[in-house]
């Protein structure tokens, strides 16, 4: 039978405050869990930089993070899901949303940062790998799509601010415009028919804006 002192509100027990040692134990467990989660993401990001997506394994991540492999699988069902979270977090930190007050300049900054993935081959490999996994794994696909949507929202916000300032047409089709921003990036990254060069970012944005303003 459960000790009444160990019952929690909602399970038939009373709502008296927990003993201090109970609170510390539960809080400490939560902190340790959050720390292990963070360490796992950091370990994944580090291994991606060092050995790339293809050679990265759950076992290797667990060893680097100092956690059990079962712990990693409790949070992420697959390598792709783990890498997606680690990669997405790193991208958010590396690419803060530009907001200079000038739409053209903000887009140049964003696209230049976007194209710079090719300066880090393991990052480019990870992105190609995640895209491939999203086509083959129906459970992972929504996770990848949600991340892509979050990056599209950054560009949509830049364009919307430009339209509000009169730099772009007020009735601009944002979804189509965002496609035009990301299209060359994904096509060149995946097909590799032409180089993806950060030096081309400004010219890409200038041609894009010229077309949007003329439409």
UniProtKB/TrEMBL annotation:
Keywords assigned: DNA-binding, Transcription, Transcription regulation
Domain HTH tetR-type: start-end pairs: 34-94
Protein name, per record: TetR family transcriptional regulator
GO molecular function, one term: transcription cis-regulatory region binding
Keyword Transcription regulation: yes
Lineage, broadest ranks: Bacteria, Bacillati, Actinomycetota, Actinomycetes, Kitasatosporales
Coiled coil: none
Protein origin, superkingdom: Bacteria
Species this chain originates from: Kitasatospora viridis
Biased composition (Basic and acidic residues): 13-24
DNA-binding interval(s): 57-76
Positions of the UniProt region annotated as Disordered: 1-34
InterPro entries: Homeodomain-like_sf, HTH-type_TetR-like_transc_reg, HTH_TetR, Tet_transcr_reg_TetR-rel_C_sf, TetR_C
């Amino acid at each position: 039978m459960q000790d009444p002192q160990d019952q929690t509100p909602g399970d038939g027990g009373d709502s008296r405050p927990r003993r201090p040692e109970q609170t510390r134990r539960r809080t400490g467990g939560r902190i340790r869990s959050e720390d292990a989660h963070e360490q796992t993401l950091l370990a994944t990001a580090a291994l991606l930089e060092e050995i790339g997506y293809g050679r990265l394994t759950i076992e290797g991540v667990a060893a680097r993070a100092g956690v059990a492999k079962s712990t990693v699988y409790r949070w992420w069902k697959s390598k792709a899901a783990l890498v997606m979270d680690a990669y997405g977090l790193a991208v958010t930190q590396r690419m803060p949303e530009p907001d200079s007050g000038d739409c053209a300049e903000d887009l140049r900054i964003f696209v230049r940062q976007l194209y710079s993935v090719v300066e880090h081959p393991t990052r480019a490999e990870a992105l190609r790998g995640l895209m491939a996994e999203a086509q083959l794994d129906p459970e992972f696909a929504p996770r990848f799509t949600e991340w892509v949507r979050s990056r599209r929202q950054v560009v949509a916000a830049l364009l919307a601010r430009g339209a509000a300032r009169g730099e772009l047409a007020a009735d601009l089709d944002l979804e189509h415009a965002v496609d035009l921003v990301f299209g060359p990036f994904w096509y060149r990254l995946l097909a590799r028919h032409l180089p993806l060069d950060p030096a081309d970012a400004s010219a890409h944005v200038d041609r894009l804006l010229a077309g949007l303003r003329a439409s």
